[in-house]
Amino acid sequence: MKRVVWGLAGKYCAGKNRAAKYLEAAGCLVLDADKMGHIVLEEQKGAVVAHFGADSLDSHGKIDRRALGAKVFGNPEELKALERIVHPPVIKRIKDEIESPDGHPLVINAALLFSSNLYELCDKVIWVSAPLWVRIKRGKSRDGFTLFQVLKRIWTQRKLSPQPWRKDVDIYSIPNPGSEKVLKAGIGKFLERE
User: Fold this and answer.
1) Helices (H), 53-164
2) Which domain holds residue 28?
3) Helix (H, G, I), strand (E, B) or coil at 113
4) In a designed cystine with 187, which of 22, 53, 54, 181 is the match (CB 3.0 to 4.6 A)?
């Protein structure tokens, strides 16, 4: 029997991680592609330094994600170069997990679910959306970014869309207007339908 796989996506600071917590509490296995990416960054440190330079490392010799982020966000060519290093190993780990015999629904939490084609592995996709002002407020408080840094992240994802063109997949849009109660109710309704 094929394992049930759901995608979880949305733009920067829309509330994907909060939605992931609700899905996990309901018994789903959640794979966080960003966290996997952080692990892969360290594993691929040589390739990162070869392309982006030694100033991509912190004083302890680990990848400095803020410094690396400053190099790639707003620079599409450099972002693609980083994605070529990180995405293949992350996608392999996700595919390996999908093949495991665990019967719990698996959720792929990935902002870049569509652009990395991970949606093709999913039976359904949950798209979390939030108003721009909510996302700006979250980015400033959660990440400690300046308004300019938050807007730069938002601008980088301006074309991120819940509607892929290459393959039809059922997409359930869940609004997150800044109220945990509304988001939790939206996740609950999705789970009831499944």
Assistant:
1) 65-72, 76-99, 132-143, 147-156
2) 5-42+69-179
3) coil
4) 22
- pLDDT tens sequence across 123-138: 999 999 988 888 888 8
Return the H-helix or E-strand segment holding 127.
Answer: strand 124-129
The two structure tokens encoding residue 144: 């400690």
pLDDT digits (tens, 9 = 90+) for 106-121: 999 998 788 788 888 8
What is the C-alpha to C-alpha distance for residues 109 and 90, in angstroms, rounded to an integer?
12
DSSP string of 10-33, one letter each residue? ESTTSSHHHHHHHHHHTTPEEEEH
- The enclosing domain of 139 has a CATH number of 3.40.50.300
Structure tokens at 126: 């949950």
Tokens of 74: 């707003």
